[in-house]
Amino acid sequence: MKQNWEKIDPLGLVLPLVILIVWYLTALSGRVPDYLFPAPVEFFQVLLDFIFGGAQLTPYSGKFLENLWVSCIRVITGFGLAACGGLLLGFLSGRNVLIRRMIDPLIQMIRTVPGIGWLPLALVWFGIGEGTTVFLIALAAFFPIYLNVADGASNVPDIYIRAGSMLGADKMGLFRTVILPASFPSIVVGLRLGLGVSWAYLVLGELTGVSRGLGAVLMDSRMLGQVEMIPVAMLCIAVMGIVSDRLLLILCDWLYPYHERTANGK
């Protein structure tokens, strides 16, 4: 069954097109100097040079793939750790009252501390580099995954559980045939939110002084006065966020097809 997220809605292109037109007209009027924000033509020239190289317009000419690769590895690692912890603790908290009473207050308390508040401590623990970035990503992505999984697992109707038990399902069978199908939409929402947060906190982690990565390009561009590279790096991060979100949805649908979720009442 083809899902809505597999279709490209032309209406979603209207606002970006309007912004591009306003941007072009503003640059044409000369009201915004190039050193504050580049004109669209200059922006796309730098973007193409960043991806393909050759023009040497900036020090980052042709270095898109190497920075993208490093950032993707950090996001995958941090998000993977968050997903493992969020799914496990979310299901345990959602289905077991005693465990929820034990762990949920502490998790809720830690959740109120903003990610940037953990940055100084992360630098002490892990230093500048991979450890701090992965830690910040994993910490930030964990909470939306945990909260949504716990909510989905705790809201499985009791009648479904009783029906499964009457049909002879054991605990593992109930989890596989009842709890997982009923809570799967909440799981997908949590994973999508966690993945989006992962890209946001990637930038925070890479602003600490790592040598490579899209966030590092952002910071170095400001330091070197390459203002035109800042929106280019921002666009690359935004596009990768959308692409990774689509890939996550495809993976979820492959692991647990949409028609099966529909058949289970979702």
TrEMBL record:
Q: Which GO terms describe its cellular component?
A: plasma membrane
Pfam families from the xrefs? BPD_transp_1 (PF00528)
Q: Which UniProt keywords apply?
A: Cell membrane, Membrane, Transmembrane, Transmembrane helix, Transport
Concerning InterPro entries, the annotation shows: MetI-like (IPR000515), MetI-like_sf (IPR035906)
UniProt record, GO biological process: alkanesulfonate transmembrane transport
Where is the ABC transmembrane type-1 domain positioned along the sequence?
68-248
Q: Where is the protein localized?
A: Cell membrane
- List the transmembrane segments: 12-30, 68-94, 106-128, 174-193, 199-218, 230-256
Membrane topology term reads: Multi-pass membrane protein
Which domain of life does the UniProt lineage start with?
Answer: Bacteria
Q: Which family does it belong to?
A: Belongs to the binding-protein-dependent transport system permease family.
UniProt protein name:
ABC transporter permease
Identify the species of origin: Acetobacterium bakii
